[in-house]
Amino acid sequence: xxxxxxxxxxxxxxxxxxxxxxxxxxxxxxxxxxxxxxxxxxxxxxxxxxxxxxxxxxxxxxxxxxxxxxxxxxxxxxxxxxxxxxxxxxxxxxxxxxxxxxxxxxxxxxxxxxxxxxxxxxxxxxxxxxxxxxxxxxxxxxxxxxxxxxxxxxxxxxxxxxxxxxxxxxxxxxxxxxxxxxxxxxxxxxxxxxxxxxxxxxxxxxxxxxxxxxxxxxxxxxxxxxxxxxxxxxxxxxxxxxxxxxxxxxxxxxxxxxxxxxxxxxxxxxxxxxxxxxxxxxxxxxxxxxxxxxxxxxxxxxxxxxxxxxxxxxxxxxxxxxxxxxxxxxxxxxxxxxxxxxxxxxxxxxxxxxxxxxxxxxxxxxxxxxxxxxxxxxxxxxxxxxxxxxxxxxxxxxxxxxxxxxxxxxxxxxxxxxxxxxxxxxxxxxxxxxxxxxxxxxxxxxxxxxxxxxxxxxxxxxxxxxxxxxxxxxxxxxxxxxxxxxxxxxxxxxxxxxxxxxxxxxxxxxxxxxxxxxxxxxxxxxxxxxxxxxxxxxxxxxxxxxxxxxxxxxxxxxxxxxxxxxxxxxxxxxxxxxxxxxxxxxxxxxxxxxxxxxxxxxxxxxxxxxxxxxxxxxxxxxxxxxxxxxxxxxxxxxxxxxxxxxxxxxxxxxxxxxxxxxxxxxxxxxxxxxxxxxxxxxxxxxxxxxxxxxxxxxxxxxxxxxxxxxxxxxxxxxxxxxxxxxxxxxxxxxxxxxxxxxxxx
Length: 745
Ligand code: PEP
Ligand code: MG
What we know:
Number of helices: 27
Strand order of the largest sheet: 7-14-13-9-10-11-12-8
Radius of gyration: 31 Å
Shape: elongated
Distance between the termini: 61 Å
Helix content: 40-55%
Bound molecules: phosphoenolpyruvate, magnesium ion
Structural class: alpha/beta
């Protein structure tokens, strides 16, 4: 390892260093041959250095990925040791290499984060069995080699070329689900720790072993602490998972493997990195879900220990250059740590758009894509990346053509944004004089920055459960009061609709220890859950009342299905008001209480609530899933049905008429209104307060200001009476008749 370190530190070009390395390995391992094969982008393996085979074969002998023992090692990412190679069924004879006299064969993969980057082989004339230690040594060497070999994969930087090209050949595309819309370009910052090549070696083996032991103790203690904090809340499955995790951390064979690396001259970090590469490579090949989960756990442990060893240093850094964060999984708090570093994009393997990290990404307004398979194995630290969170695609090391296309998309987008910005101070008033309130959907104090930026009229939906979802423990009364006060302060007199706790379903709090349900969306969630947890619910209502003080207060209850749920919730709110009034002498100057329309059943009961409820707000996300019986979390059905549909619009028209008769104000707060044609339909039906993400306010306002709503309504109703073909297309055509550009709808 010492000699190798010297060679690595040598000046000179990569190829001469590789020649030196193969000579060195052949002599120390007493092998007749040592060769390095490079995996080319299309998967073939090219001989790039050899000691012992014919030198003429270098850069000529090429094996297909399915060919020979070398191809076998590359495919399986596992070492292979064979006493008599020519007799092996995978053996492929290449006369130009002059390998006839060699029998024994030992091949190991050269692994990087991105998978197999080459194969390192030693061969001997005599039929011999390689010992386990020899296999291990060769694996360690191959890890050190990985960095040099990889530089050969990268094309040399052309003179005066734009900097993005220095990373060499394009890395292809990946796709996923858009979590936060936008476009971004920057260099990959891997969330998982990276071990720099300079830290591969340790000169003092015993000191390094001690460092590793101290790290292992620290790691185990941190897992114990985690179990202790969450322990009370953990029963059943989650506890089993944590126990399995603890057992893995205490597994002597894992520790032994790490020590082995150190004994061979590696640093503790490099030894861990080696283990992590092996776990990843195995994960790429593993199909069995149980095995995959365990390998994920092991990789998590590797990362955790790397962080423990690195301390502050182990944390990923986003430097001057604009970064694109690349993570397998990301906790909301972890993402918040990157809030002020100017990230250009966020990419995650995790798939749920409602995941907490996705929520935070939206609050930060950073283009984000999730559910990207193989993300962390395809992207390297520092890779140039285009994040197309309009289409949901990722371009790795884009070539000029892709980059230019991206640039023109950015220009178009900023042109559109400039158009929207010009409308900021203007009302969303239709040509025939109807003014629609355009409100903001928010969930974190961070979101409130958008109020002024987007020119919103207020907050139409404040998702109070986010505070619960992003914190490790249940927020205390004071924490809740502080947040609600901050929100009211920032809104500076503009209305804020506080939606009471909407937990359950996909919004699971580990601390609440809920039972696993067959159909969580139809389960013990939202107002059902709140009414059954009166202590928790009352504390929230108290916080709302106290935060408002003598300011106006607007409260809305989610997922109400039958009138009694609304009445019970409102009664609790009134009790809190009375209690607070006697204790503090303060009362909100005005109180409004609303209900969300998320289940079809409530739509048929609105006449019963006349006089009791001030407003109704359609939660299109949940309403659509229940109306069409299509789970919003299942990608294959979540976008199958369209709200621009005669059945849905007739239902919403009926509800609007009932509410008008009962003097209940109409509003909408689901994501669907972000699309201008949908917003126009709602406005035409009489829903004149629409709440949406900040980015949608500009386009919706632009459409509303262009429309003669009366004429649009007449056209819409005519088509609803006699639908013909795709209803969305009919509505888009109608909008186009009104001069509204629906190209992106
Ligand atoms: C909805 O269901 O439309 C809604 C606004 O609530 P959430 O998305 O938070 O369930
Ligand atoms: Mg909902």
